[in-house]
Structure formats: C-alpha cells, structure tokens
Fold these 2 entries.
Entry 1:
Amino acid sequence: MAIIHLPVMLREAVILLEPRPGGIYVDATIGLGGHAEEMLKHIGNGKLIGIDRDEESLRMAGKRLLDDRVVLKKGNFSEIGRMVDEAGVSMVDGVLFDIGTSMLHLRTADRGFSFLSQEPLDMRMDRDQELTAGDIVNKYPEKDIEKILREYGEERLSRRIAKAIVRYRIKKRIITCAELADIICSVYKGRGKIHPATRTFQALRIAVNDELNELRKGLETSSGILKSGGRICVISYHSLEDRIVKNFMKDKREKGVFNIITKKPLTPSFEDVRQNPSARSAKMRGAEKI
Ligand SMILES: C[S@@+](CC[C@H](N)C(=O)[O-])C[C@H]1O[C@@H](n2cnc3c(N)ncnc32)[C@H](O)[C@@H]1O
C-alpha cells in the first residue's frame, strides 16, 4: 500500500515563505516532497534544494518531483551550509523546516518508530547511522535512560520506567517496540488520554536522532545562508522544539538579524486537523532576514 504523507499547513507555509519566480529555496526536510511540490509551482525557473537524512524518503521525493529545478541531497540539515555550497549556491531566498518524522517512518513497521510495531526498536531516520533505540534501552545506564525520558519526553514516571527497563533487560534483551511498550504499560496502571508509551517513544526518537541539537545547528546555519529579505519557516510538533525555534528567532531579532513575521505561532485550522489528525500539534513560526 502506498504511504501518503499529507503536508502540514501547506497553504500557510507558502504564504509565509513567499516563494518567487527565479528564487532559490531549500526544503531542509523534504520527506515525501509535499511542501516541495507546492513550492515548485511558484518559483518559475528558480531552484529548489531538497535535503533529507532518510535515503528512502529522498528516493520517493525524487520520483514524485521529477524536475530539473530540484537538487536532492542526503544528509543532516545541521550541514545545510555545506549542502547548499555543493549545489553551487551561496545564498538562498528561503528555507523551510518541517521537522520530525513522516508517515513513512511511522507507518513502516520495520523502521521501529511505532509502539504498535512487532519489529526491532530502531527509530533511526538515517539507516547508515549506528545508534538505534534498541542500543539505548539495552546498553545505557539506568540514570541516562531516566534523563532521556525526563528531558526529551517530559515523562513524569521517568525514574520508574527506567528502573523497569533495567530490571527486564537483566533477564532478557528488549527487542521489539511492542515489548518495550508492554514494559511501560506495566508501570502505568490504567490508561490516560494518550497511550502510556507515547512520551517514552518520543524521548527515544529524539535521543537516537539527536533531534534538538540538529535543530539548533540547522537554524543557526540557515540564518547565515539567507539573503537579506529571505525567509525562514519552521513547523514543529512538540513544545521542546517550539521553544528552541522561538528562542532562536527572539535572539536573532535582538541582534538585529531577523524580523519576526509570526508574533504568535500559527496553528493548523480545524479543517486541516480533520483531514490530517497528525497535524494537530503543529506550530509554525517564520522570520525574515534584515
Ligand atoms: C515531517 S517530515 C517532512 C515531510 C515533508 N514536508 C512532506 O511534505 O512530505 C520530516 C522529514 O525530515 C527528515 N529529517 C528530520 N530531521 C532531519 C535532519 N536533522 N536532517 C535532515 N533530515 C531530517 C525526516 O527524515 C523526514 O523525512
């Protein structure tokens, strides 16, 4: 079955970035190419550099877009400067970050992102990377696991879950996603509004992919390659990411580098969320280089 990833806040992203004919734009998280496809409609004979660290997503985006104006690059967006340089460009008119995972990750069981999956705990966006979520739960000291769950998952039972993980792995290596989800459920008696494993899985994903550091570096580097009047648009999906984006833009405004376009973050419309429930936590912020 074909995996479909509906681009989140597509209309708002285009309004905010204002892609113009002849402009050079970077989609730093091209994923399955939804936002990129829309941007291409506005840039005439311009250029779009699409980045993703997931080889499979890049391949699918390439097939979807089939366009001479597109240059695709595999790598971390923290290295956006180098990748843009390799594409023969020095300064760009706009950068889009739509961070996090795509449906390709969440719906493909063997990528090991979903707590419903019976496949090994993996969660690597870049499959060439060595560290997996399985390594963290089976090898890291209890204190480090607790810290990851507390800081990246804001998990209130981080200590008890870390203890349960370590107690379990003395008897048997934790292999599948569902096995870890069962360990977490044994700590949480009863269920709240969300599945008890949600926060732990978010935390492990952030740790495996070093997501928060990637975001800090990616934002900083992209501010250096934006032309004056160029725009940056960031869509994030949880408060830890949004805080980084907000503070970054505020800091750049204070230093006279950016004007902030979105005084408050934009959020998806009721209709967007109805069509695409995974968009419900999205927050979009934008700024323009002075
Ligand atoms: C939410 S999806 C983007 C979906 C895309 N906007 C679309 O319309 O199809 C996020 C993508 O960013 C990629 N990604 C996340 N963090 C990254 C990073 N630090 N460097 C490069 N790619 C990253 C993921 O592999 C994923 O494909």
Entry 2:
Amino acid sequence: MIDTQIRPLSEQTFNLFRDLIYEKTNINMRDSKHILVSNRLRKRIVALGLCGYDEYYNYLTKGENRDKELPHFIDAVSTNETYFFREMNHFGALGELILPELFGFKKQIRIWCAGCSSGEEPYTLRIVVDEYFDRAGTGKAEIIATDISTDMIEKARNGVYGERAIRFVPEEVMKRFFFPVGGGCYQITPELKSGVDFRVHNLLKEDPPENSFDLIFCRNVMIYFDKAIQRRLVDEYFAEVLDPRGYLCIGHSESLTGTSQRFRYLRGIKAPIYKLE
Ligand SMILES: C[S@@+](CC[C@H](N)C(=O)[O-])C[C@H]1O[C@@H](n2cnc3c(N)ncnc32)[C@H](O)[C@@H]1O
C-alpha cells in the first residue's frame, strides 16, 4: 500500500487505539496525540502492506498475528527520546553524594534503570559508577536496565550510537569507552557493554526484575502515566524493592509531590532525588 493512499485516522478508530494503548501500557494518549499516533501507526501499516487504520486495528486485535504484532505496536507508540549524560545533575549527585554514602556501609550495590530506552542512560550510569570506583579504589555494582520496547532493548544491547546520542559525552569518556564504526556512528567497548544487564520488561504488568535495589533510576517514564498509576508505581512497586537506605531518581520535569506518601524529596540537590520516609 502506498503511504498517500491510506485514509486519515478517524476519531472513532483513534479512540480504539487509545484504549488499546492504555490497556497494554497505561500510557495516556490525549486527543492532542492524534497526529502523533496516526503518523507512528502509518509506518506499521505500510510495513505490513495493509490498507489502513481499521484493517490494522483488526490485525492487531483479532488476526492470528496479534501476539506477534503487539510488541511492534508498543514500540511504535512509545516515546524513546534519550541520550548519554541526559540531566547531568543526577550523575553529579551520584558520584559526589550517593555512591560515597552507599559504599560507606556496603561493598556491592544493585541499580535498576527502569524505562531505559536504547541504553544511553544505563551506560552513562555504568561510566559514572566505574569512574567512582577508579577514584575510590574499590566497589562493585550490578546494573539492570529494563524497557517495555523490544526494539529499544535490542538497540541497547547492540551499543551503536549516532552523533545526537553522544553529543554531551566528555572527550576523555569518548576515548575510553567508544570507538568509531563509520557513518558518524560510535560503538561502545565490550567492557562497557558487559556492565549492563538488559531485559524486556513492563513496569506496570510484571514483578520487578529483582527483589532488592539500592538505587532506582526511572526518569521521563512516569510522565506518560496518570497520577493514580504513578502513585501505584512508586509507593506500591518501587518502595517495595528499594533498600530503606536507597535512592529513587526521577526526571527533571517529574515530581512526586502530592503523588507519593512514601517518598520524601531531598532538598539541596539540583535534581529530583527521593528517599523512603
Ligand atoms: C522518554 S524514554 C526515557 C528514557 C530514559 N529513561 C531517559 O530519561 O533518557 C521513556 C521510556 O519508557 C519506556 N516505557 C514506557 N512505558 C513503559 C512500561 N510500562 N514499562 C517499561 N518501560 C516503559 C518507553 O519504551 C521508553 O523507552
């Protein structure tokens, strides 16, 4: 099917997709997301050679391929924007405050990067943690990174990034952890790659990947969920697996004020970092 022959996404079919997106991911697609959803789904329709949105909806919900198509649908509708050293203040606080404190009473820590997209965030965590170990001369950290999108986890495991993703990577970090692979792209070193354990995982439908963490990064993920889901996620899910002395980091445009009853905001750090009450 040629792209231009596809009829625009009707309001009625948009509502069907919106309900399906909410059912599968709890992501709230407001009316203003109509064009975004139609553009993203059009690519799947063209790739599958289907005639239009209604046919795609049936393919996704009734056809024999529905289980196989669902991950592609989820990939198509999720927003995966990310890059290395995004929201730098968290990483500053990590190296200067959080890691020295945690390693004051532990020899080994476990970190969960939830909603890690294509890997830039957990690899940045690995770099910052390893640099701290170099300075401190000791320490061990396991990093588990999860995302609902199979495409993003595959990209993360592959570890090849373009210029946009690496634009804030300091030069000395580039020299140590990246090598050019042509076409303006860079691959991370095998050492860095082996420092993160990636898993496909839905935060709202599956148990946490492990039962205890010292640090949870969940940045720019909750922004897509409504308040009730955000509260459930932090107070009934993260709080249950976070060590009482651990830390929760969320995105700069997110806040738990008025949402959480179990986490308190840490003042004096220029980043939204929380501890259990
Ligand atoms: C905007 S990206 C944020 C990436 C990274 N945390 C950062 O701040 O740069 C949001 C990510 O959350 C993931 N996501 C959305 N809903 C999810 C869910 N229910 N479970 C796991 N990951 C989810 C998306 O697939 C996407 O990769």
